[in-house]
Amino acid sequence: MATLQQIAFHAGCSLATVSRALKGEGPVSDEMVRRVRRAAAELGYRSRTSAGVAGTRNRPVVGVLVPSVTNPVFAASLAGIQHRMQAASHGVLIAQSNYDPALECRAVSALLEQRPTGLILTLCNAETSKALSASLPPTILLNNLPVARFPAAVTVDNYRAGYEITRHVLAHRHHRILFVSGHFSSSDRARLRYEGYRAAMGDAGYRPLQPMEIPFVDGYEHLELAPVMEDYAPTAIIASNDLLALGVIGALRRVGLSVPGDVSVAGFDGIPIGRLMNPSLTTVAMPDGDMGVAAAAMLLDIATNALQCRHLRLDHRLYAGGTVRSAV
């Protein structure tokens, strides 16, 4: 088996630098980390600690953080991650933040205790990621735009998706369009979708309404829309995700309004249950499973082959559905 001395010679650095780079501890430049990991991969190096841990559980693992394991969006991404990691003989450890930024550090710390090969993280807001531990293994952001600390990411263009679904609703002669969302502090994806909505409204010459923000984790079956319907009298509602769109439809029916007869409704994600409805839900379909596969493949490339970090953006697709119709 290759030694640390051989890796140091191959990478052109000191033993101390090799140790820091492999452990993810101490001051080492990103370029040097890549050089050391590339040398270790080429020489077939495997640390004693990793070998011992892997021997205990029979195979290496990766850690994955998502806001919720029950949301079909993240469940699809997890399935994609597990499928790709299974092919690479890796296990998958899963943690959830419950859309709470304060819980993210604790969840990541729990994953790190298992010494994963790397991490795949869906954060409430990647801009606040400085609160995470300074010593992390190779890390991929999933659904968050890349930041200076985490340049590797797999995303869709949530801003553009928000713009396109709003243009679709506007094309059906709706001008009073309400955006209903979970708290933006819990999801930068929802915030970007709202910013796309605002831009589309402004470009069309209409004033965007103030968003209605509600908690993500309280469930949508008891969503109360009567006050906001009275205040804004919207003819259409765009929800920041499909589950919330279903909650909006239920809330409208409870106050005697039909969809799309009285109010049009649209969402984001393209979860299967939306297509089973009658009429089917108007939405922007996201490639959640493919994103999980892509994030897993990218992590393996960076962690084992020392490839450069990059930002991969997958395409979304507007699904017209039947819950949006022309305003009278």
Automatic annotation (TrEMBL):
CDD domains the UniProt entry points to: HTH_LacI
Keywords (A to Z) from UniProt: DNA-binding, Transcription, Transcription regulation
Entry-linked SUPFAM superfamilies: lambda repressor-like DNA-binding domains, Periplasmic binding protein-like I
HTH lacI-type domain segment(s): 2-56
A Pfam family the protein falls into: LacI
The protein's name: Substrate-binding domain-containing protein
Matching InterPro entries: HTH_LacI, LacI/GalR-like_sensor, Lambda_DNA-bd_dom_sf, Peripla_BP_I
